[in-house]
Amino acid sequence: MALKLARTALALAATVSLTAVSLPALAQNVAVVNGTPVPVSRADAMVREMVRQGQPNSPQLQQQVREELVKREILAQEAVRQGLASNTDVKAQVELAKQGVLIRALIANFQKTSPVTDADLQARYDQLKKQFGDKEYHARHILVPDEKTANDIIAKLKGGASFADLAKQYSKDPGSAQNGGDLDWSPANAYVPEFADALQKLQKGQYTQAPVKTSFGYHVIELDDMRDAQIPPLADVKPQLVQQMQEEKLQNFIDGLEKKAKIQ
What we know:
By secondary structure, the protein is α+β, with helices and mostly antiparallel strands. It is built from nine helices and six strands; from the N terminus they run αββααααβααβαββα. Helix 2 (40-52) crosses helix 3.
């Protein structure tokens, strides 16, 4: 009986000792495959990425990630066993993948440490409002390749011809011709300078008395109407502006690095 009790005590002690050793390992790894640990940090990274893509975090997702990582470790070990890690093409792909991870981390860190501030956002919005102007114009135009045709069209308009009908007949602008030359509502600066200047000189219902030459050809322009500029509030355009400004800041950061780089 004493011998049996002694053996039981030794077994219990061994179990306690084994548990004490394995608990830290379990805390650091989700699994150990053929002696190689699969760290919790790797699983956490995969879970975060899947959550970012829209999957809800749950015990089921974490179990799926564990199973996937174990499977990957098994396959990766087999690839190494077969000597594929020494393959030139494989090495190149591994380096490209490593670069991709580093670049994404760099971009994320830059965006975190160089955010678009509210002051930056307000300044850009005010600048755009100023560029937009305080008026919008509903215009029509007829685009032709030569000055003579433009003058002939103006003569027809003076004779009472319909601007829309002449646009459909003569205009070479595929975007507006079949709509009677209609350009819809736009600020003047949406057009090339020569066109904008002529448009702003017109009164409602007037058309240009002489052809307007631009890089596109010769225009006859009619002003249907004008109104105060319909500029959306900052809150409505904030997401688009933030994205645009973030992209600009990132591009400037990349351009700066390229300029400083020594390339041979």
